[in-house]
């Protein structure tokens, strides 16, 4: 009678989707979302809470861009983790030195043929943090007081994306200059996402050395310091340059007018007569038409 009741209870649990843990393989993990620093070890946990089968089949798969590939198959490490990982009891995967290419989803699968629910799986997301590289910085060598200018800073290797900070003479510039008595009169603004440092109106106090630092959860890197000079408006220099330009223009105009007066640019027109009279000998007093006149007189005779 007791056996009948046990069978009936098992049938009821099965029909309702409830199976006693002693008859089912059940997995869990300590973290479903895991972060790791590049080139450091990380362990993905696949803990077997309940199982009856002595030698279950354990497999790990890596899913990247929707495409699965084997990580642990037929009792050995496979794929791009070969020689870089090992299986640890009960079913954990230890990666010795993670790389940015290891960022993906990993699925632990356990099959137990002696259990009534003979299969379970658990999905773990791994994201590998990458330290920023030395950012590319752009600092103008010289600017004029009262003008606007922008300093730039950028790097593309870090993951997650870097946040940027600027330093002036080895002192960090606050994000909002109005919050600092020392920089309250400055007109700069910093974009921590793009690395831009913009000055609406440069002051003499803004001169000095500047460098930028890119930082994320994996570390930071900075570019070498660069000097930015700030000069006053050179009124005398501007006047002299303008006067020199006017003098050159007047000199060119005078040369052109002088050349016109000398006829260097004069051209003879197509309708202008350019004939010369033949030279006459001192002893010849004949009229120019004499020959024609004699011919006519002869013709009359």
Automatic annotation (TrEMBL):
GO terms for molecular function: cell-cell adhesion mediator activity; integrin binding; protein heterodimerization activity; protein homodimerization activity. Pfam families: Ig_3. The keyword Oxidoreductase does not apply. The keyword Ribonucleoprotein does not apply. InterPro entries: Ig-like_dom, Ig-like_dom_sf, Ig-like_fold, Ig_sub, Ig_sub2, JAM-C. It comes from the Eukaryota. Keywords: Cell junction, Cell membrane, Disulfide bond, Immunoglobulin domain, Membrane, Signal, Tight junction, Transmembrane, Transmembrane helix. It is a single-pass type I membrane protein. Residues 20-125, 132-216 form the Ig-like domain. One of its GO terms (cellular component) is bicellular tight junction. Residues 1-24 form the signal peptide. GO terms for biological process: cell migration. Belongs to the immunoglobulin superfamily. This is Ig-like domain-containing protein. It comes from Channa striata. The lineage of its organism: Eukaryota, Metazoa, Chordata, Craniata, Vertebrata.
């Amino acid at each position: 009678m007791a056996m009948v009741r046990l069978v009936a209870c098992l049938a009821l649990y099965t029909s309702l989707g409830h199976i006693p843990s002693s008859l089912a393989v059940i997995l869990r993990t300590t973290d479903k979302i895991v972060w790791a620093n590049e080139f450091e070890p990380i362990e993905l946990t696949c803990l077997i809470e309940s199982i009856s089968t002595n030698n279950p089949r354990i497999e790990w798969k890596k899913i990247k861009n929707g495409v699965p590939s084997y990580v642990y198959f037929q009792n050995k490490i496979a794929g791009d983790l070969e020689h870089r990982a090992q299986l640890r009891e009960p079913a954990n995967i230890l990666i010795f030195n993670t790389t940015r290419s290891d960022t993906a989803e990993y699925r632990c699968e356990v099959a137990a043929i002696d259990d009534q629910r003979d299969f379970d799986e658990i999905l773990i997301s791994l994201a590998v943090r990458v330290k920023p590289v030395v950012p590319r910085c752009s600092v103008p060598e010289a600017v004029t007081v009262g003008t606007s200018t922008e300093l730039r800073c950028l790097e593309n290797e870090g993951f997650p994306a870097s946040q940027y900070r600027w330093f002036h003479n080895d002192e960090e510039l606050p994000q909002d200059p109005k919050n600092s008595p020392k920089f309250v009169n400055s007109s700069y603004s910093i974009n921590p996402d793009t690395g831009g440092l913009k000055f609406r109106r440069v002051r003499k106090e803004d001169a000095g050395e500047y460098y930028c630092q890119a930082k994320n959860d994996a570390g930071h890197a900075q570019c070498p310091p660069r000097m930015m000079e700030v000069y006053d408006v050179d009124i005398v220099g501007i006047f002299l340059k303008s006067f020199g330009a006017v003098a050159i223009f007047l000199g060119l105009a005078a040369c052109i007018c002088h050349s016109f007066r000398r006829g260097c640019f004069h051209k003879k027109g197509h309708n202008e007569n350019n004939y010369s009279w033949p030279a006459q000998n001192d002893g010849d007093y004949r009229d120019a038409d004499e020959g024609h006149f004699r011919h006519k007189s002869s013709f009359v005779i």
